[in-house]
Amino acid sequence: MTHLFYWILFYLDSVFVPGQTNPISASSCFLQGHFEPSFLANGHFMIGGLFPMHYRVEIKLYLILQCWCLFRFDPRAFRWAQAMRFAIEEINKNQNLLPNFTLGYKIYDSCETHVAAQWAVLGVLNGPEETQNAMCFAAAPLLAVIGDSGSSQSVVASNTLQPFRIPMISYFSTCSCLSDRKQYPTFFRVVPSDDFQVKAIAQLLQRFGWKWVGIVTEDDDYGRYALQGLLREFRNIGVCLAYYEMIPKVYDQKRIHEILRVMKQSTAKVVINFAGEGELYPLLKEYMDLNITGIQWIASEAWVTASVLASSYPFMVGTIGFAIRQGKVPGLKNYLLTVNPLRYPNHTMVQELWQHSGYLNTSNLRVTYNVYKAVYAIAHSLHNLINCEPGREPFQNSSCANTTNIYPWEVKFYTFLMLRLILYFLIDSCTPGSRKAVRRGEPLCCFDCVPCDDGKISNQTGVFRYTLSPSPLSRTECIPKAVEFLTHDAMGLTLTVISVVGACLTAAILLVFIRHRNTPIVRVNNSELSFFILLSLILCFLCALLFIGEPTVWSCMLRHTAFSITFSLCISCILSKTLVVLAAFTATRPGNNIMKWLGPKQQRVIIFACTLVQVLICSMWLIAAPPFPFKNTQYSRSKIILECSVGSDWAFWSVLGYIGLLACLCFVLAFLARKLPGNFNEAKYITFSILIFCAVWLAFIPAYVSSPGKFTVAVEIFAILASSFGLLLCLFAPKSYIILLKPQKNTKQHLMGKVIK
């Protein structure tokens, strides 16, 4: 593309008069004034715009009061100006935003210089008369100004507008100096401060391990404040500065060569550059001519996305930097194509503009999107001001503004609120599904966006806290979790069948023993104690059924108490039987009268006393901290586990410990009686049954603790059934075999065979 160079003193884009169908074009230098309506009727509001549609390449002074400059046209900035026009025209067509009101605009070219920006602001403030001294008119009815792009130009413009209390919204000025609300009370922006950028660059250096760097900036507030911020961050991360050079605002080839010589001779191959495209242009041109290579550029947001640099200077490939957030402006590209060359003083410029990718490229809108947001911020502020509700306004006595005579400072209040929302949601925000994590020791506005933890959500933009979510499948919305407990599914039905089979088998054995209660094998083993053991085992099998199904208050209390009491009864009966067996063979010794202390009454007392201790423990448990249904949401993020909380861990393990104590005592006594004479020494079977019982419950403890969800309950049921079957089969299977299949051995002589011999 042919470079667009031409002589120009000052360029004024256009002035749009509300109520007229077409904008009025005007071209003039800043000593000639401009055309605009003599007054604005009610319902018409004017917005000013400052855009650097040209940037200076060389400066030549000729006549006094005339500053002739060689400027290079910037298609990208021209697109920004057109985006402002597009937004205003879009708002004027919107029936929901500022209905019955019309926005007008005055757009000036600030030429990316302090002086031009000063004259542009004064031009925006001009009144209607056209005189030779255009800067001395009465003030025009201006409500706000959008601009400028450069921080130094914005400083000048803001200071000029401040006495008039006219709010100014910048779309690209990032200098941290402009964050001073006392010095710049009417300045606002829709772009983050450089404080964030320098922190990001410092983290970038730290990430790649770059400790030796150079800095090149433009010679103004933008560059100087960026340097201060970088040096502050360097001290925190241990980065050293090799050199610092400033690009002169007025082109000086000798000074440019000095800067490039320092860069070429330095051992620092990483260069951080904070400069606008206009200031950087002569440096990069000489950089290319001198064929300097091996430099890793870190670009500021001012030029990192400038397409003209990437297309004109292929040697800049590899440059990295942080760009501002991009956005979409539907319909803008078609609007850009509607530019009429006849409306502009340089027709050739506009015709070449059609072919320029920097102008028509709307796929990656960043600064353009900021301009679009700034216009809408003013429009919404004005809309809120016009549609105020008495009692809720920020003015004195919570009064509303006079909509027929609105002052710029009144719009400022609303603009401030709107920009806070824009910055909060569109620039420095965390998207739904994440939250803000404030950095320790830093201001509240310094934060990181971290994804919500599993099971937690945030469905709003820019939140510091999140809410609990039933499901980890989504971090932006709550999805109900599945509720899990041991139901009558395949596992539950299997355990139910085993429990019922065990109870029925025990009942069948009980009937067999009752029918053969007068036979020697039943009588010699104390039929009454055998009946008690079988009855307690039936209850043990049936209590397992209480663990299946949805937990309720009553089922939770009955589960553990019924299980513990029935097992205590069973083990107490076995303990009493073991004492009787041991005493019966000991009583055969001369002078031993121990059996008189272990008669039927004493046996019942032993059983009752041992069981009563467990009943008392369970009673205290139910009174102090009874078990209750509990929804466990901590173990699994994908489901809610409905279970019975034991209420008191101490009580739960106490009842298990007491059963274990009875079982251990029974095991010791049975072990002592294992070698007593007789063909049917029951002590051997008691020893083996208690050994199985203890093994099951010792294995239960780690399995119970580590099993998830409904499997915890299944493990407990399995322990109950396994221990019950162990006692039943070890104690009664041999006897039932003799009674039913070997009746010839069911004699006193056979049972005492070894004694007779």
From TrEMBL:
Q: Name one GO molecular function term.
A: G protein-coupled receptor activity
Q: How does it sit in the membrane?
A: Multi-pass membrane protein
What SUPFAM superfamilies does this protein's entry cite? Periplasmic binding protein-like I
Intracellular or extracellular location(s): Cell membrane
The G-protein coupled receptors family 3 profile domain is annotated at: 491-755
Q: Which UniProt keywords apply?
A: Cell membrane, G-protein coupled receptor, Glycoprotein, Membrane, Receptor, Signal, Transducer, Transmembrane, Transmembrane helix
Q: Which domain of life is it from?
A: Eukaryota
Entries under Pfam families matching the protein: 7tm_3, ANF_receptor, NCD3G
Q: Which region is the signal sequence?
A: 1-21
TM spans (from-to): 490-514, 529-549, 561-585, 605-630, 650-673, 685-705, 711-733
GO CC terms: plasma membrane
Instruction: Write down the PANTHER family for this protein, in alphabetical order.
Output: CALCIUM-SENSING RECEPTOR-RELATED (PTHR24061), EXTRACELLULAR CALCIUM-SENSING RECEPTOR ISOFORM X2-RELATED (PTHR24061:SF504)
Q: What is this protein called?
A: G-protein coupled receptors family 3 profile domain-containing protein
